[in-house]
Amino acid sequence: MATEAFQKIYTKINSITKATCSLKATGVGYDELATVNGKLAQVVKIMGDEVTLQVFEGTGGIPTDAEVVFLGKAPTLKVSDQLTGRFFNAYGNPIDGGPEVEGKEVEIGGPSVNPVRRKQPSELIATGIAGIDMNNTLVTGQKIPFFADPDQPYNQVMANVAMRAETDKIILGGMGMTNDDYLYFKNLFSNAGALDRIICFMNTTEDPAVERLLIPDMALTAAEYFAVEKNQKVLVLLTDMTMYADALSIVSNRMDQIPSKDSMPGSLYSDLAKIYEKAVQFPAGGSITIIAVTTLSGGDITHAVPDNTGYITEGQLFLRRDSDIGKVIVDPFRSLSRLKQLVAGKKTRKDHPQVMNAAVRLYADAANAKTKLENGFDLTDYDKRTLSFAKDYSDKLLAIDVNLNTTEMLNVTWGLFAKYFKPEEVNIRQELVDTYWK
Amino acid sequence: MATKGKVTGVIANMVLLAVDGPVAQNEICYITTGGDRLMAEVIKINGAKVYVQVFESTRRLKIGEEAEFTGHMLEVSLAPGMLSKNYDGLQNDLDKMEGVFLKRGDYTNPLDEDRIWKFEPLMKKGDKVGAAAWLGSVDENNQPLKIMAPFGLKGSWTLKSIAASGEYRITDTIAVIVNDEGEEKALNMIQKWPVRVAMEDYKQKPRPFKLLETGVRTIDTLNPIVEGGTGFIPGPFGTGKTVLQHAISKQAEADIVIIAACGERANEVVEIFTEFPELIDPHTGRKLMERTIIIANTSNMPVAAREASVYTAMTLAEYYRAMGLRVLLMADSTSRWAQALREMSNRMEELPGPDAFPMDISSIIANFYSRAGYVILNNDKAGSITFIGTVSPAGGNLKEPVTENTKKVARCFYALEQERADKKRYPAVNPIDSYSKYIEYPEFKEFITGRIGDGWIEMVNEAKTRLLRGKEIAEQINILGDDGVPVDYHVTFWKSELIDYVVLQQDAFDDVDAVTPLERQQEILGLVTGICRSEFDFEDFTEVNVFFKKAINLCKQMNYSEYKSDKYNTYYKQLEELLAAKRVS
User: Fold this and answer.
1) Tell me: the pLDDT tens digits for A348-395?
2) Do strands B166-168 and B117-121 pair parallel, antiparallel, or not at all (unpaired)?
3) Nearest chain A CA: its distance from B501 CA (Å)
4) Which residue of chain A is at minimal alpha-carbon distance from B354?
5) Which of A173, A400, A424, B529 has its CA 20 to 30 A from that of B218?
6) Is B243 a domain residue?
């Protein structure tokens, strides 16, 4: 895009808060970018000739006579194949020492896909982890977060999923990531020789919080380029969306908006939905799948961020340390993949849905038996069998270190059924029992 | 001359305009920016300062850009040809839009003006014509649709001429009416109606009483909804709201189904228009899509249009009800609609009510639900709108404004419960907290007795009591232990489990189990009640467990089998044998 021949420079700022500043200016468009003493800012409110700018880096050190220049465009990213293997900051500038990317400049946060131009997702993403593939099968075009406490190994599991999944591109959007975790991802990608399919947009805890607001849109704009123009299967990893929401609440607070639940802006649902709904399966074959992380505070999923997220995403994955086997497992009760029925029993063996449900039901019976035991009651023979089953099931299938294909997972489960139960105790269709009972 | 305005302020999708003439509350205007025309609706007026909510992204909108007012409120166009369509919240035909992405300011015609219809007149020259009178009919997807006189028509009008039976477009004049003053109106097949105004051209709205069969046992058997009834489904995420709603919209015995996907996931809408064209309406044997209209305003589409979408859907429903049809309207989710109201109220800096929702949220919800109902039309025919909305309570807490205010107006309450969902007891409708007020209506009792026979309501109430008793005993067993309670407590508990597993739980993804016709529901409840009323002889509680698990397994195998098939009969026989061995005569 050619630079405007004439750019008016304003030098009188009327008011400054921690995240915003206001000045009198004319001819300014909503959402437009500006620089304030060289710092990037975006128009968030126009009232008459008074324009309010959100300064991404924060307003520290900005004087009232700072030079303000409006750029006449919303935030953009240059997209091309050159993005591949590169690491960028929230503005889409390289942070890996490499050259600037040449390509088509597109506005980030672009329009939504017409729902009638979407295709129903139907392609399984295999991860080898039975807690995911069997109980909560992932599908291309899906959006699903890990709901995890900060001490859980969600980034490692997510990285594992990304490396095992068969995709053309993996785009990592890091928001408020610790530098250590950033280096973990960077080393993992480099060592696995995966740089030819990685793109990274990174905002670490060392960067200003408000900059994070650009990360998801940057990552997804790049994703849309590869999914739409190149018909590629793109996996987008967004971690951590709670940090993103925190940045939203900072900005809305500075703009004197009335907060709704948990000090979050009233528009939180729409703000998050705009990001997650970029997940899509296109009829031409390209797709965008989003796996995100929403960190919880003490496992509380009623907090506004996980709560709104749960209503938007197509399921959620919970990790839990199982003290009986001393391993981290994918929690079968609270985890859910809403799209699993599009592939379970269709792209996988036909006994998949019933086996999955029966196993979880028996696991629930084991949980009841455990409560009984803890309350000091005698266990029935059935109770004892469910407990033994639960331990095996947890160790051989739910643990995150499992790596099997789905048919193996089903066979292992039938084996466990036969080891501990009688056919009438599992409540599965008779034809399936006749075929697979061992 | 049309009123014009200039942009004086922009905050997200709320725009301030300075106007040069008269403006009405809720009037529609178009703001021109960078070659796009953005539709907007007036939401507040303060002198020459007018607040509008823009139904599109306001990116790059500038101070001083011009707006032109239209002189009318947000309205929809109503005519034959709307069935099977996919609309957005403002009734734009989504299939007519070009490209993969939605373009700002792209408005498409909701109707197909070139389509030819076979028109049959129903009235003759000289007949008196009242509002919504049936002038003629056309056939759409084997559904006889009425061509009606304008809604809201006032005064005394007579039919001056009417088109002969033949082929016409919706834009062709099919009738001319004249009033006492000699004023003439030429009518075509198109009606326009403002979405925020209820269409009330009917004679009366009696209490509804006819069962609306959904094929979902926990609804039809336990807490039935009726034609023209209202219900709502609150539930935390992951408890199966959408699956239940889709099941109802697939199976319900309605002539027209309108689904308003209001601020929900786009993939759920994709599921509807991928599957519905393939699925068969169990009642008519025709394609489901032929009776379905989708209003898709998914969560990533503009917020203001989301708010409008439920009104658009209701107005379409009223159009079909005025033809004497049974309409089922589903809105998923009304909470997203309420949140859209909250976002706007917040931007207008109104004083917030509970949870930052606008103060009048309760009356907005009540007014909306009251537009549903069973009506007797002016020609004494009946029509109905059954409305079922989902509610997505924040944090799964039912003590939040949208759930509480909906509970005040909706007559059926289907409480989805996290605990049941965790245990995979689907549909996760809590049988004890949920209710249907209709089951208490004497009109309903009379209807259901005529349909099924005596004793039905008694059996249903008995099942409910057993479920409640079972829950109480489960708690006692948890505290006292299996040995700490008498054996007959275990029997009572397992009888409630039998009802739960066999009647309540239903596999929405199983070909047979997904839909249970009323006759089969009658058989199931009869069977289960028979077992529950029997006395059995057990030594100890382990024997009780084993016995009932076997009984439940056999009943479930029956549920999975084609009704009265050989397989079904075999399982039935096995069940009889099992029962006979332990029954005390």
Assistant:
1) 999 999 999 899 989 999 998 999 899 888 898 999 999 999 999 999
2) antiparallel
3) 10
4) A260
5) A424
6) yes
pTM of this prediction exceeds 0.90: yes
A29 part of contact set with chain B, CB < 8 Å: yes
* Beta carbons of A316 and B238 less than 8 Å apart: yes
Give B481 to chain A, closest Cα distance, Å: 6
B85 Cα to chain A: minimum distance (Å): 11
- Residue A48 in contact with partner chain B when CB distance is under 8 A: yes
Torsion angle, CA of B424/B425/B427/B431, rounded to 10 degrees? -150
Instruction: Say which CATH topology domain A9-70 has.
Output: Elongation Factor Tu (Ef-tu); domain 3 (2.40.30)
Residue B202 lies in a domain: no
| Mutate which: B46, B51, B265, B349, vs A, most A CBs within 10 A | B265
- The CATH number that applies at residue B68 is 2.40.10.170
Helix (H) or strand (E) holding B29: strand B27-33
Print the domain residue range for B306.
Answer: 217-444
CA A21 to chain centre: 32
Report the distance separating Cα B453 and Cα B442, nearest Å.
Answer: 15
Contacts with B, A 107-166, CB within 8 Å:
107, 110-121, 141-142
- B335 and B294 housed in the same domain: yes
Look at residue B138 and tell me if it is in a domain: yes
CATH number, residue B152: 2.40.50.100
Q: Which residues contact B113 (CB under 8 A, 6 or more apart)?
A: B169, B170, B171
The pLDDT-based confidence of A6 (bands split at 50, 70, 90) is: low
Q: Which of residues 165-224 of A touch B (CB under 8 A)?
A: none
> Fold for domain A76-107+140-313?
Rossmann fold (3.40.50)
Which two three-digit tokens encode residue A227? 């999914």
Q: Which residues of A touch B552 (CB under 8 A)?
A: 427
Q: How many domains does chain B have?
A: 4
Q: ipTM above 0.90? A: no
Last residue of a domain, one of B73, B99, B132: B73
Residues B432 and B487 occupy one common structural domain: no
Shortest Cα–Cα distance, A210 to chain B (Å): 18
Q: Residue B156, exposed/middle/buried by CB under 10 A (0-12, 13-18, 19+)?
A: exposed
